[in-house]
Write a structure and sequence with these properties.
This protein is an all-alpha fold. The chain is built from 10 helices and no strands. α2 (17-29) packs antiparallel against α4. It is flat and about 55 Å long.
């Protein structure tokens, strides 16, 4: 019923598809960080993820839907609300508030059990220092080279955005931007090709293979 009521309120006060996308971005920007970081740090638990999703939804509603309801007279003028004229500032505030909430919840709630964490690590074998306790507990090496993957992300970003700005720079007769972007794109492509020649998974230490 609550979701239906909120959906009806949004439908009546939204005037364009752009506003719907803005609302979806506002609601989804809050829990984005914790949903990514949970793959890199064992301490993030289910309570922190739930807190991030709930707080992101609530803050997103209060910054996107409630101001419109007040304007239409559906809510009292003294209703507490967060209103921003700049979308970037709105997303920054939503993300900041949500991050504070899920960190506090994470710190005051216990982590997942060792059995759950170790079983997850055995199945996924994520890399990075955030799963070092599980690496030591299971005796298994990770199947992910986080440092190598991070370099690949940077190289791919240079290739992608360099190519885009190269085309845009030359089409708009901005030679300096075009040539500089082309150099970055070529460098990123060469770097990415070099990184892809390295082994995807690190070699396991003798005696640590999981069969």
């Amino acid at each position: 019923m609550i979701i239906t009521a909120l959906g009806a309120a949004v439908a009546f006060q939204i005037n364009s598809i752009v506003e719907i996308f803005g609302l979806m971005i506002a609601i989804g920007s809050g829990p984005g960080a914790v949903l990514i970081l949970r793959w890199f740090w064992w301490r993030i638990n289910a309570a922190a993820e739930l807190a991030a999703m709930v707080s992101g939804f609530v803050v997103g509603i209060f910054t996107s839907v409630v101001p419109g309801l007040i304007t239409r007279g559906w809510l009292p003028a003294n209703t507490p609300v967060l209103s921003f004229s700049d979308a970037g500032q709105q997303l920054l505030i939503i993300t900041s508030i949500t991050t504070i909430v899920w960190i506090v919840v994470m710190l005051i709630t216990p982590p997942e059990s060792d059995d759950t964490l170790n079983e997850f690590y055995r199945r996924v074998r994520p890399g990075g220092p955030g799963w070092r306790p599980q690496q030591q507990a299971t005796g298994l090496m990770p199947k992910q080279n986080l440092a190598l993957d991070s370099q690949r992300v940077v190289a791919a970003a240079l290739l992608l955005f360099g190519s885009m700005f190269t085309v845009g720079g030359f089409l708009l007769f901005q030679s300096f931007t075009g040539w500089l972007s082309l150099i970055l794109a070529i460098g990123g492509g060469y770097w990415l090709q070099h990184l892809n020649k390295q082994p995807l998974f690190p070699m396991a230490r003798p005696g640590t293979e999981d069969g």
